[in-house]
Amino acid sequence: MKRILATAVALALCASAAFAHDFTLGTLEIEHPASKATLPGQPVGGGFMIVTNKGTEADRLVSIAAPDVSDDVQIHEMAMENDVMKMRQLPDGIEIPAGATVELKPGGLHVMFMKIKHPFKEGEKFKATLTFEKAGTIDVDFTVEAAKPGAKKGEGASGDHEGHGG
């Protein structure tokens, strides 16, 4: 019985390692870069990840490049202004404070792949280069996950970004 349990635990650990896609650059850890599947004709896609700064100095995510999928990749935030949800580009990037974790997710800080060259299909991956002010650059793989359930064209299959025309 113990052998069966040990085998099951070992298989579970191997499976979780196979699905994890984390990257390290100096004191920065980038966890699970991902996007959502898009619909044909959808002009934009969202990008999400978690960045943890294990260092003693703040750093800043200043740009992202993904030429295989978009020639214009922007860093955005969504925030409430006078009871209205507004989205805006952050041309100076996102600060990653020392000892802190910053999550890029739908409805908050996120990446926008503008005028995408082809639809993002669930299960595919694409490369992107993240540039940090102090740590430098790192190539990561974004995994395309399932679209929002029940999304139709114009309803934001990639994280409620129907307002981003192309």
Blueprint (SSEs and pairs):
Blueprint: H1 2-19, E1 22-25, E2 28-36, E3 45-53, E4 59-65, E5 72-81, E6 84-89, E7 94-96, E8 101-104, E9 110-114, E10 125-132, E11 136-145
Parallel strand pairs: 2-11
Antiparallel strand pairs: 1-2, 2-3, 3-8, 3-9, 4-7, 4-10, 5-6, 5-9, 10-11
The CATH superfamily label reads PCu(A)C copper chaperone
Low-confidence stretches: 4-19, 151-166
Our measurement of the CA-to-CA distance between the termini, rounded to an integer number of angstroms, reads: 59 Å
- Number of helices in the DSSP assignment: 1
Question: Main beta sheet, described?
Answer: 11 strands, mixed
The CATH topology name reads Immunoglobulin-like
Write down the Rg. Answer: 17 Å
Got a strand count?
11
Relative helix content: 10-25%
Which assembly state applies to the chains in this document? single chain
Structural class: mainly beta
- Overall pLDDT metric: 84
Number of domains: 1
The percentage of residues in β strands lies in over 45%
Name of the CATH first level: Mainly Beta
Using the alpha-carbon principal axes, give the shape: globular
CATH-derived architecture: Sandwich
Q: What is the H/E string?
A: HEEEEEEEEEEE
